[in-house]
Design a protein that fits this description.
Length: 71
């Protein structure tokens, strides 16, 4: 499955990827924080929506990610 940036609030269409908390090959559990996203309103930890193994990181720290974009 792919991790996509969810809607983070009304009127928020993108966020900056501040920090990955996982690496390729890591096993993640449901609701485990996987990254920090900063919007113009707040910085939030994005939890994993499913259990699995990280196979790729499709965004780099510092990238601006749009809602619905695969991370």
């Amino acid at each position: 499955m792919e991790l996509k940036l969810p809607e983070l609030g009304e009127g928020v269409h993108e966020g900056e990827l501040i920090k990955w908390k996982v690496n390729v090959g890591d096993i993640v559990r449901d609701d485990q924080p996987v990254c920090e996203i900063m919007t113009d309103k707040a910085t939030v930890e994005l939890p994993a929506p499913f259990h699995g193994t990280v196979t790729a990181l499709n965004a780099k720290e510092g990238d601006v990610v749009k809602v619905g974009q695969t991370m």
